[in-house]
Each structure stands twice: as C-alpha cells, then as structure tokens.
Amino acid sequence: MSDKLTEIMAWKRQEIAALLRPVLEEELTALNAALPKPPSFAAALRRPDGKLGVIAEIKRRSPSAGNIAPEIAAPAQALKYRAAGASALSVLTDTKFFGGTLDDLAEVTTLFRKEPPAVPCLRKDFMVHPIQVRQAREAGASAILIIVRALSDAEIAGLFASAQAAGLDTLFEIHTESELARAVKHGARIIGVNNRDLAIFKTDLGLSERLIPQFPREVIAVSESGIFTVHDAARARAAGAQAVLVGEALMKAPDPAALISAFRSL
C-alpha cells in the first residue's frame, strides 16, 4: 500500500472505531427488506445501446488535486449529472480527505426518490467494516467500493458478503495484475482500474489499456481517474471499458452536461 493510502486507511479505521460492533448478514438482509429498493448500479453500467457509461462523481477536494469545488451542494450537482444523462453517480462520503459526508449521499438519494427517476449511487469511501455497508444502505446507496490493495482477503470477503446481504453492488478497485487476480478470486462482478498510482499520484491511462483486456468476459469493466477529455474516454472504451468514472473534470467543467454527452457518444 502507498504511504498516502496507508495514512487514509489508518485514519478511516480510527474514525469508525467507536461505531464498531458485529453486523450479521441477517441484520443486513432484514434492513434491505425494510428499506426502499435502490436502483441497480450494475444494470446502469450495462448499456443496451453499447455506448460508454458515465459514472459522474461528486468530489469537493482530493489529496492530489486539492480543492476542486469546495462549496458545491451535492443535490444540485446530482441534478446536473442526471439531466446530462449520467449512468450512475459516485458520491464521496469521506470528510477528512475529500470533503464529503454521508449526508451528501442521503440527500441525493432522498431527492431522487422524491423527484424520480432515480440514478444509482456509489458510496465512494474507504470501506473496512460491515458497519459502513449498513450506513451505505441506510443512506440509499446502490453500491459500495472495495479497494483491493487496502484490505486483507478476510476484510474483502466480509465486505462483499455484507454488500450482497444488503442488496448492494460492489465496485472492486484495482491497480495491478495481482490485485485483479484477488478481485476475480473473490467473485467480483464489477472491477474498476484506478489509473492513478496512489503512491506517487501519477495517472496513466495505459493501466486500463493493459489490465482491462485481462478481465473475465462477464465482468463489467470501469476505468477510473485521469479521464479529462473525449480522447481519454475513447482510449478507455477502446481498451474494453463499459464505463468511466469521472470526477475532477466534471466538477471543474463549465458545462458538465456537454462533457457527459460527449463521453456517452462513444
């Protein structure tokens, strides 16, 4: 693990320490049955028209970019993304490093229930314990993120099983061939290549071009980070990506709708 990712994960474990308790799959199954069913994240990425899916991210800041759009209101940004035709949303819920909150996710999903159609939302955070899966389901998420390099096999298995019990999809994030092998071993159905090396914060779309062709055929392939232009998105699509996850470029774009439309045309 990179120094920065090590720092973030150590903080996350400390941050949630007071919340920790056993969370049984039966508890999550009951919760799933009691709450409104969220739209499918996986289904949104399997576009029947064969076009590139766009996961539009709400991100106020990041360790690599600093402040991006610190004053943005998550519901307002979500409405812009939905109007532009985003396939799904990614909502950062980490506060310390990314300026997001769990309330951002809850406000977006509540808005979509009141004013349909709903767009599936990924809880983008550093997941380490099933209690965070419960939080995600309660906040209306459709999916959670599992960062393979940051977790043990036992932690991955526990998070994945918890997500399934809660009715959530899971995006496995990888950066290397060995991480791809681990994700596949755990039964990942959606795998995203993070083109950004979290050790040095260098971005290389060549990672998607190298790794996505190695994915099992049935896996939904996502290219994450470093997608700023239509040319970038076209490279990811040519590599086999069914969707791209785009944050900084959309948050900074004067017209995010035009950029999403251009990506979706691929």
Key phrases:
266 residues, alpha/beta, TIM Barrel, eight-stranded parallel β-barrel, two-stranded antiparallel ribbon, 12 helices, globular
Question: What's the arrangement of secondary structure elements?
Answer:
Blueprint: H1 3-16, H2 25-34, H3 41-45, E1 53-58, E2 61-62, E3 66-67, H4 74-83, E4 88-92, H5 102-114, E5 121-124, H6 130-138, E6 143-147, H7 153-165, E7 169-174, H8 177-185, E8 190-194, E9 196-197, E10 202-203, H9 206-211, E11 220-224, H10 230-239, E12 243-246, H11 248-252, H12 256-264
Parallel strand pairs: 1-4, 1-12, 4-5, 5-6, 6-7, 7-8, 8-11, 11-12
Antiparallel strand pairs: 2-3, 9-10
Helix pairs in contact: 2-7
Work out the count of structural domains: 1
Largest beta-sheet characterization? 8 strands, parallel, barrel
Shape: globular
Class computed from helices, strands and strand pairing:
alpha/beta
Q: What value does the Rg take, in angstroms?
A: 17 Å
Mean pLDDT: 94
Total helical elements? 12
Instruction: Detail the poorly predicted runs.
Output: none
Report the strand count: 12
Measured between the Cα atoms of the first and last residue, the distance is 34 Å
Walk me through the structure.
With 266 residues, this protein is of the alpha/beta class. The protein has one domain (3-16, 41-264): Aldolase class I (TIM Barrel), CATH 3.20.20. Helix content is 42%, strand content 18%. The protein is built from 12 helices and 12 strands. The strands form 3 sheets. It has an 8-stranded parallel β-barrel with strand order 1-4-5-6-7-8-11-12, surrounded by 7 helices. Strands 2-3 form a two-stranded antiparallel ribbon. The chain has a two-stranded antiparallel ribbon with strand order 9-10. Helix 8 links the parallel strand 7 (169-174) and strand 8. The mean pLDDT is 94.
